[in-house]
Amino acid sequence: MTRETFITHVEREQEALRGFLFTLCCGNKDEADDLAQDALVKAYLSCAGYQDKGRFRSWLFKIAHNTFLNHRISCRKTESIDDDQALVSGSVADSSFEHQELYLALRTLPPKERSAITLFYLNGYNIKEIAMITDTSEDAVKKQLSRGRDRLKAVIKQVQSDACS
Questions:
Q1: pLDDT per residue over 45-60, tens digit each?
Q2: 50: exposed, middle or buried (Cβ count in 10 Å: 0-12, 13-18, 19+)
Q3: Residue 117, exposed/middle/buried by CB under 10 A (0-12, 13-18, 19+)?
Q4: Phi/psi class of residue 76: alpha, beta or left (left: φ > 0; alpha: ψ in -120 to 50)?
Q5: What's the rounded Cα separation, in Å, for the pair 149 and 19?
Q6: What are φ and ψ of residue 99, in 5° steps?
Q7: In sequence order, what are the residues at sequence separation of 6 or more whose Cβ sits closer than 8 angstroms to the Cβ of residue 80?
Q8: Residue 104 burial by CB count (10 A; 0-12/13-18/19+): exposed, middle or buried?
Q9: Which fold has domain 3-164?
Q10: Chain segment 90-113, per-residue pLDDT in tens
Q11: Is 94 helix (H, G, I), strand (E, B) or coil?
């Protein structure tokens, strides 16, 4: 792939990439921007290996997903909904941000489940595409989606019962 072709593809997919990482980072714009930049550098350095057999977006999301997972491993953050509520009320997101509760709930999911949920529900990928992006089997993706939905339901139910108390 030529440099010009790469730039053209990136210009077309950059916003989708940032949105994907923004969701994985649960509304933390700075973290998402840093990861997007890292992913784009990695993509550029490995663009000779891109064979144009699939969608460029899927290839780029795969790199971004791996960058996100590596970042999460290096941070070794343990996250709870209470810690995140304090975080979100401060600098991570604007208090009028409409998806704060969703991001709070997503933060409680393990990274692989968060990725599956994000790719399936927010980015519209099917199970086969998610398996390719995340380097897992289709059965693993189905389990991640099922577990992720169950955990999200439990977290949302807990938040709602706490709000009513």
A1: 888 777 766 688 888 9
A2: middle
A3: buried
A4: left
A5: 21
A6: -110, 20
A7: 108
A8: buried
A9: Butyryl-CoA Dehydrogenase, subunit A; domain 3 (1.20.140)
A10: 444 444 455 677 777 888 888 899
A11: coil
